Amino acid sequence: MKRPTQKDVALRAGVSRSTVSYVLNDQTQLKIPISDETRQRVMDAIEELGYEPDARAQSLRSGSTNIVGVIIPAIQNPFFWQMLSGISESLQQAGYSLHLSHHPLDLRQEANTINQLTRQPVDGFILLAAAKYLLPRLTDYLRKSGRPVVEITAAKAEFDHVVHSYSSGTYELMAHLLELGHKRIGFVYGITRDVQGFDRLLIYREVLKEHNLETFERHCGETLEEVYEAASALLSDPDHPTALLVINDIFAVAVICAANDLGLKVPGDVSVAGFDDIPFSNFTSPRLTTVSGMAEDSGRDAVRLLLKRFEEPELPQQVITAKVQLIVRESTGPAPQPEKR
Which CATH number does 167-293 carry? Predict the structure, then answer.
């Protein structure tokens, strides 16, 4: 079926095409004003025909698309879905929609992402990871776009940003485990680049150094299978850690599975804790102790910064620091007592 045009609306309403355009663009300062009755006829015709304005044409006229580009780094991690939920909800409330692009990992993906963004003009960008971790051409594209950019990042950033760092939460988690009597605390670190989780890893090392305790780190790739293998190797040692930090909740599930497959009880033989507080962390068995990053709030904060930048382009750099919270559940418990001989 042919898509209705402004000409069709004009014929149905009995007005000129220019009148339809004036009504659609809400123009009121005209030499010959449009009556309320005429406006209503046009709106009725639009509804009857199911006419939808061409967003691209409107954006060329107004310079605004009412679309925000969002670049997401890891679509398989529910943590980013939560962040995206907060962004989407806030954008809708402000009258914007979003255009989603995946954080490219290689040059081909980078070219595809740039092509997507070129074909779909947007008013601004929200990055669910620091711009400095993007590939160079995409970072350069964002700088030259002339559009506002907001980053959600664990450290200082080039653009307006929400500081989403787990440093304080890691201190709390380590204090929790030490209070439970754990002396051998490990870290399963599944990442693509080492810097991705430094807000957690560096605090882990610092706290253990302060207490003159040994580190037990396992660095691996960022698939569930790789995390499972890393945890299995760490826990197969007779003197394995009695507690494990895991870089995020979804990988903590793989660690618990590895412990179970080795005949170890969580938390009786080994305590496990993650980061993010993704929705199903409260439905694992046992329920997972985690540090919540309040992801939806960070998404809302990012939109708040972007809208403020739209209103006041000359503002100095804006920064919001996200809150984090330790949530103690069933997967952490007292350190097991050494067997008497």
Answer: 3.40.50.2300
